[in-house]
Amino acid sequence: MTTGSTGGLRRAAPDGIVACVLLAFLATAGLFYVNIMPALVAGLIDGLGFSNQEAGFVGSANVYGAACGALIAVFLVRRLPWRRTEVVLLLLLLSLDLVSTLVTNAWPLIALRFLHGVVGGTSVGIGLAVMARTAIPDRAFGMLLTVQYGAGGIGIMFLPGLAKNYGPEVLFLALASFTLVTLAMLPFLAAYPPKARHTAAAAARSRAQRGPLIRTLAAVFLFQAANMGLNAFLIPLGRHYGLADAFISGTIGVANWIGALGSIAVIWMAGRFGRTAPIACMLLVAIAGTAAFLLSGAHTVFITANVATAIAWSFLIPYFFGMCADFDTAGHTATLAGFFSKMGLATGPAVAALLLGQDNYPLLIGVSVAGLVACATAVLGPARLLDGGRLEREALSRVTSG
To answer: Are 82 and 130 a contacting pair, CB within 8 Å?
Structure first.
């Protein structure tokens, strides 16, 4: 469904499914390289002769830059017109991806991708803030993961082969193409102004939410670090256990598509059920699926582990971001969650590159499992608080008693 706007341009209804899709592209464009990270790492190793560490550092630099950009976005959300800012940022992203096709040495590429990350992280941070202003943020974030997994699955399936045949610059051209598509969608989004909130209630809620918010942000960091640390090296991991490249790429790509079922479930469930039970169940799936990679030499286990972790990943992140959005409808905490998410996504491959050494994959898998257990410890308490409405009750109590 669409609504009319000035100049005859028809824009998507602010809280409709079409708007969720457009917002998902906006919040993906600056970070799409994360969704094709295994292809990017493998492409740099195969096409440019980078070592495991160099390729991992390129990916980490990109995401560390994105974390810096996400932090910048926290301060820009209310100060700049988001649509015009996004146009500038997306054009810069496009330019940086095209320049990346010309760089063949590790350290210059690391520096360039860090800069790309700063721009992309700012763009994604603003996009997340806009998504938090929708009526049901969990649904919008669910669509975000659906788009990421759908597009990422296509990338994982086809880009490694294309990179082998035509060089790693194909990877950066794919990123540039995604940015162009996003630019074309931008005019069809509604205005999404920040939502006003009563000052006294907001102040009281802020005091009540501080501890749960910190724990939720820590959970976002731990979850992303644990998953991406392993995910970035899935192709080399499969090779280490004796699997063929075609089987590895096909499995990861199809698992991404199947994984989108998790975020589709969030779109359907959002606003209907509580968060604690679904989060607890899917964290168990994520832990079991990650541990199963220890038996990757068996084809069926490798397939099952990829599918299970993909579904859990796409299911849980929308819930975590939706929890953060509940703390502040203007979008600041959702943007802050984007910062912690990117720090986790960047830290995971960096730590993994150091842990691997001489292909020490069992150690990497064990550390990833430990990170997921720590995530569960951090997030389940805040989820119970939000389900029980305790934050709202404490805020109202402070306002009325004051």
So the answer is: yes
Sequence letter at residue 264: I
Tokens of 331: 């979008």
This model's pTM is above 0.85: no
Rounded Cα–Cα distance for residues 226 and 217 (Å): 14
Q: Which of 269, 260, 395, 245 is nearest to 322 (CA)?
A: 269
More confident residue, 399 or 221: 221
Angle at 253 between CA 219 and CA 114, to 5 degrees: 55
- Average pLDDT, integer, range 209-228: 92
Residues 339 and 341: their CA atoms lie apart, in Å, by 5
In this structure, what are the phi and psi dihedrals at residue 3, rounded to the nearest 5 degrees?
-125, 145
Q: Flag whether pLDDT at 109 surpasses 60.
A: yes
User: Which of 63, 380, 355, 29 has the alpha carbon at shortest distance from 175?
Assistant: 29
Dist. CA 333–CA 340, nearest whole Å: 10
What is the spatial distance between Cα 393 and Cα 155, in angstroms, rounded to a whole number? 46
